[in-house]
Specification:
Chain lengths: 336, 335
Amino acid sequence: MADYDPILSVRNLRTEFSGGRGDVRVLDDVSFDVGRGKIIGLVGESGSGKSMTALSLMGLVPKPQGRVNAGSILLDGTEISKLDAAGMRRIRGRDIAMVFQEPMTSLNPVRRVWEQVGEPLAIHKGLGRSAIRKRVLEMFEMVGIPEPQTRLDAYPHQLSGGLRQRAMIAMGLICEPKLLIADEPTTALDVTTQAQILRLMRDLRDRVGTSIILITHDLGIIAEMCDEVNVMYAGQMVEQANVFDLFENPSHPYTRGLLASIPRATEARVARRMPSIPGMVPNLAKLPPGCRFAPRCRDAMPTCQRPPDLETVGTGHVARCWLHAGQTALQSEATR
Amino acid sequence: MKDTIPADMPPAEDIVLSTQNLTKHYRVGGGGFGKSARVVRAVDGVTLDIRARETFALVGESGCGKTTLGRIMLRLQEPSSGTINYRGTELTTQGEAEMRALRKKLQIVFQDPYASLNPRMRVEEILAEPLRSHGFGTAADIRDRCAELLEMVGLRKQYLRNYPHQFSGGQRQRIGIARALANKPDFVVCDESVSALDVSIQAQVLNLLMDLQDQLQLTYFFITHDLAVVRQFATRVGVMFLGRLVEVATTEDLFAQPLHPYSMLLMSAVPRPDPRLRGQERPMMQGEIPSPMNLPSGCRFHTRCPFARDICRIEDPALQDRGGRAVACHFPLDG
């Protein structure tokens, strides 16, 4: 795949936190790519490491307890994981930007919206106030804020949740970054507003070619939005696939369990009880010795006491599960 | 583990709780300097019958009044007007002492399992409190009942000595459920009770709620914004918009054919976990919810409705019976 040139390439990322009882590895050997103009999903439950992945990419892991200890992050061919604070500040907001879950708490309540949305321009491009104001107005139009002229001077509390999130997306995109990371961007919004924001993000990708990492716990959003999907569990990637493969042929028992347990608005209930995954996510400080999902897994077997690797289950489709061990060998045999 | 098709709908005549024209209006602002007080009509005339042993889901967007309705039904907040009848007893005229006695039967499970449990109390004290306040029995009886409650919600009784922070979100919600069930209630309001939980945990808690409903003959008033949960969990659904019910139907009927344009648009906005369905253009709600302080004339939904005609801007449609279901629309979608 010589012509494959991803905008972001993450390899063997390891992020650790030190605490009272020693180090906790919140990300363990995380690798994935973001193709140019693609929407890549990171999906998982609380504690899976999906938000920590975003913070690691942005150089925003809380210090001094947390740090990225190993791995590489290539953004458009440039290694950014070794940058110091000043170096990260130079690219954050310019080359790589992030939209957070709560648009209320990520905006300063006492500053006008346009000044905040335009701030990256002042920092990275050194533009003057009138130029910034003009550019913010363009961005407001692009993200579909109605009556954009009158919203420029608003304070955050004067905007609805949906408009605030549009403003945050405008801020994220104002320097035309190479990569936008959206961490649960619609979780705090109503479903009708969510549909509008998701459509906006899809349109931006189609029109402007923005590459997006979309972090969500909602497999419905993954199915509607993403090209490729990364399923995370307890700090590891457990399955990676094209979105169609993932939903048609989920290969990790955790992914299968998740897909079975999501309530669906599109299908009538068939059984009184819903399928569920027993137990709960393990404490990262007390991980099971082998497969981290094994204690909850219906298919667990003695081998699962040893940690599984990511095994190939199809083209561009891998799963960290002993059920698929050996298939990698078989496949390379077949292609030979 | 039972894997049966849901029991038949309870008979319509077996009503647990019914409201007549229930309202809750808040005054905001005003109080001098020539500014007149404005009124927010959080709940604006809700008439509803809840049948015994059903799961009635109330859906709507934030600010539609669904939480307020759930709270005034139990008189956790006082309604501004209207009546609430619980098994023949009019709740709005009960004194404080009578209401306290009735609370045994009328319970609520809150959304946030982190905020609704006192962090300084052990689980045993959390569960014993409602028992004691209703004179459950001796200290030994109460201890036994606490252990029984904990096991009923799938937690080991050894946990009685623990504090809320020692539990996960799902376990805490189980404790909240155990507390609500302590005095064997009859009618339970679940206010976004599974919304804060991870998917795999959400299914566990929904299953627990269903099992307990079967065991204890509970009636649920299930407040949620999640239509997928509604489809899998509820027997009937009320759709609320700006303080009013705009549609009431069985879950099956509603999902087969919503009659109110708002219900239809709400349903079509739910992301579908199937990438093959992508790209199908779906109708999308335009604009923003009007302010409840400044309601549109006529039908309150007309500013966002793709089918609105002249009459919709003038005349406010009432919730009308339509073959076993009800809809408040001049032009329901079945023609």
